[in-house]
Amino acid sequence: MLSDGGRGDAELELVVYGKDGKIKRIVRVKGNKFLTCGVSLLWQLLAGQVSNPQVGLCGGDSSASVDPSQTCLQGTHQACVPASSVSISGNQLTVLATFDENTGNFNWNEVAVADLAHQCPNCSYAPIDRFLAQLGVKQPGEVWRLTMTVSIS
């Protein structure tokens, strides 16, 4: 069980590019909850019990409240992409991923940092956290660049 209901700090920045390649909007939101399965995977990686993680970001369309026992994003529509950049600074992990014009075209309400190479029960990836935010509908032809910074304190 995670202390304090699985809370961690996170900031998400979304940059939306139109079909013309120009920035249409930028959204910045805060919030986060760690998920028990994902945190367990972190401990397994630390202990050398699993290897070769592939960090990425996943998005979904569910706005259901977050519970640390969830093992996946809750949405009917979900999309994951590998990170194009991962950095660590002190107690913060920053993940950058780009959803191209054909990926994740649905109403976004949830985001997760995930290990795409490992799985949690009933999930094709292992979400470390779950972040709720009404980001809007990603339209075909749009490119979404997401940067998520997660910190543990």
How would you summarize what this structure contains?
The chain is mainly beta.
Beta-strand percentage range: over 45%
Report the sheet with the most strands, covering strand number, pairing sense and barrel closure.
6 strands, antiparallel
Shape: globular
Question: What value does the average pLDDT take?
Answer: 92
Helices, by number, come to: 1
Give me the Rg, rounded: 15 Å
Unreliable segments of 5+ consecutive residues: none
Structural class by helix and strand composition: mainly beta
Q: What is the straight-line distance between the termini?
A: 17 Å
Helix content: under 10%
Following the backbone from N to C, one meets helices and strands in this order, namely EEEHEEEEEEEE
- Secondary structure: number of strands: 11
How does this structure look, described?
- There is one protein chain.
- Helix content is 7%, strand content 47%.
- The protein has one helix spanning 36-46, and strands at 9-17, 23-30, 33-34, 55-60, 78-82, 85-89, 92-99, 107-115, 126-127, 129-137, 143-151.
- The strands form 2 sheets. Strands 3, 4, 5, 8, 9 and 10 form a 6-stranded antiparallel sheet that branches. The chain has a 5-stranded antiparallel sheet with strand order 2-1-11-7-6, with no helix packed on it.
- The protein is globular.
- The two termini are 17 Å apart.
